């Protein structure tokens, strides 16, 4: 009994051919390459990396059955388990793969020929996702084409800044209308969240009259000590300037009478009264 072998898919054959070709140059030393050959090799490697990345994303977008067969959460989790790559990077790749497969075929085609690298594709798809949902499909396609043309001249950081203003380039009148709607929504949100409230600044101690700017202050307000127990009040701290009026008057009379005086009616300590 013979077992029929399943023929290999062209995608798998291409990947095996790439890895086999790389195995053949595993021991080759690029130090002996000519300068122009090194330059050409570096550019071609970057192009090949973009092509391989697109192929990987294309396979990721259709690999739900791989995750289901092993009871993994998704193919990104399955790939993390088998390849030990960073999970957040794999999840980002899975989102990009879904976006390319679902909506952005032009970006995928540019990656397929090495004219757009994965970082640029990520930025372009994010910029296109941020466009208004009710935008005309033709305008959105024009935005995709314009950003892909920019990808041949600008890096991902520059593309991100260009993507924020892409609607102003391809459809200025729509950009102005969208900006007006955005500002109106922000004003409405701010008006909804803004409120005016008034409250008293502090509470007067029990038994004291509240201070008023129309009433002149005749004395210092009582000083309250902080209690170690939250919410508890303690008696006001004694202040040296607060004394009884009667005691103050007696102290003044004693001080005046303790000095020698020739005024009548005031006894002097310097003389002894007659007996």
Automatic annotation (TrEMBL):
User: Spans of biased composition, class Polar residues?
Assistant: 259-275
Q: Where is this region: Disordered?
A: 185-275
What positions does the domain DUF222 occupy?
Answer: 46-178
**A Pfam family assignment:** DUF222
Q: Which InterPro entries does its entry note?
A: DUF222
List each coiled-coil range. 38-65
Q: Which keywords label this protein?
A: Coiled coil
- What residue spans carry the Low complexity bias annotation? 232-258
This protein is called: DUF222 domain-containing protein
Q: What is the scientific name of the source organism?
A: Nocardioides turkmenicus
């Amino acid at each position: 009994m013979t077992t029929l072998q399943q023929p290999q898919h062209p995608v798998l054959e291409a990947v095996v051919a790439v890895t086999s070709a790389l195995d053949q140059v595993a021991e080759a030393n690029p130090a002996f390459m000519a300068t122009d050959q090194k330059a050409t090799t570096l550019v071609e490697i970057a192009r090949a990396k973009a092509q391989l990345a697109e192929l990987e994303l294309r396979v990721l977008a259709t690999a739900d059955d791989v995750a289901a067969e092993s009871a993994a959460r998704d193919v990104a989790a399955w790939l993390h388990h088998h390849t030990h790559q960073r999970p957040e990077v794999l999840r980002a790749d899975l989102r990009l793969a879904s976006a390319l497969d679902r909506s952005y075929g032009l970006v995928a085609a540019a990656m397929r020929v090495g004219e757009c690298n994965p970082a640029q594709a990520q930025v372009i798809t994010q910029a296109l996702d941020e466009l208004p949902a009710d935008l005309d499909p033709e305008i959105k396609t024009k935005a995709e084409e314009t950003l892909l043309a920019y990808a041949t001249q600008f890096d991902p950081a520059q593309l991100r800044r260009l993507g924020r203003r892409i609607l102003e380039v391809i459809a200025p009148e729509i950009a102005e209308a969208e900006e007006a709607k955005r500002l109106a929504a922000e004003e409405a949100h701010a008006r909804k969240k803004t409120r005016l409230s008034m409250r008293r600044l502090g509470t007067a101690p029990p038994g004291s009259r509240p201070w008023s700017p129309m009433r002149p202050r005749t004395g210092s307000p009582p000083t309250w000590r902080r209690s170690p127990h939250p919410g508890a009040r303690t008696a006001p701290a004694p202040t040296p300037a607060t004394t009884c009026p009667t005691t103050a008057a007696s102290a003044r009379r004693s001080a005046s009478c303790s000095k020698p005086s020739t005024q009548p009616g005031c006894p002097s300590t310097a003389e002894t009264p007659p007996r």
